[in-house]
Write a structure and sequence with these properties.
The structure holds two protein chains of two kinds. By secondary structure, chain A is mostly beta strands. Chain A is 0% helix and 48% strand. By secondary structure, chain B is mostly beta strands. The chains are: A mainly beta, B mainly beta.
Chain lengths: 113, 117
């Protein structure tokens, strides 16, 4: 079956620092890849996604590129803000069939002023 | 548009009790999902549905049952709750499963925090 591995936190950065959260996946077929964000006490919100190799997803200053050769989908942001503090989940679908998403364990990001 | 709503937000059960969690969506989505979130485990799929009247098992279905009698509702039932079912439960829905349609994004509800004593 599919699996998603992401760096475990917490990750603590200062405001305006550069952010990278690593994510790698294993899957059969050609999955779509996603980054979701969860703010305290809330459900998950889609941050960005990519549906095929070399696609770049972007939103709110965050970016991630679908790298099939390294089976990776690392999340990056050039200058983080305190408001980016949240838990970030990398996820993949199966590439076929309606069997939901496979999530990584989540990375807790803490941005200090 | 309320999106995806879940009822209740919090619940405490004793071992052996039963309960039903309700998920409702007003986006006319075909697909609906139930996940559980446990510390250090990410989200894991319990059951899902590809349309009214259909259900299927996910990764961790044991101890749960589901029903999709109406397109907008997806119910998750615990017949005899166990402490191992203490978790946060999330419902999600999507138009489609196919990435090529551009409508495969899953929208999540706010979650139900369940404690089984």
């Amino acid at each position: 079956g599919n699996s998603v591995t992401q760096m475990e936190g917490p990750v603590t950065l200062s405001e305006e620092a550069f952010l990278t959260i690593n994510c790698t996946y294993t899957a059969t077929g050609y999955p779509s890849l996603f980054w979701y964000v969860q703010y305290p006490g809330e459900g998950l919100q889609l941050l960005l996604k990519a549906t095929k190799a070399d696609d770049k997803g972007s939103n709110k200053g965050f970016e991630a590129t679908y790298r099939k050769e390294t089976t990776s989908f690392h999340l990056e942001k050039g200058s983080v803000q305190v408001s980016d503090s949240a838990v970030y989940f990398c996820a993949s679908d199966s590439g076929g069939g309606a069997d939901g998403l496979t999530f990584g364990k989540g990375t807790h990001l803490i941005i200090q002023p | 548009n309320a999106g995806v709503t879940q009822t209740p937000k919090f619940r405490v059960l004793k071992t052996g009790q039963s309960m039903t969690l309700l998920c409702a969506q007003d986006m006319n989505h075909e697909y609906m999902y139930w996940y559980r979130q446990d510390p250090g485990m990410g989200l894991r799929l319990i059951h899902y549905s590809v349309g009214e009247g259909t259900t299927a098992k996910g990764e961790v279905p044991d101890g749960y049952n589901v029903s999709r009698l109406k397109k907008q509702n997806f119910l998750l039932g615990l017949e005899s709750a166990a402490p191992s079912q203490t978790s946060v439960y999330f419902c999600a829905s999507s138009y489609s499963k196919k990435a090529s349609s551009g409508r495969d994004t899953q929208y999540f509800g706010p979650g139900t925090r369940l404690t089984v004593l």
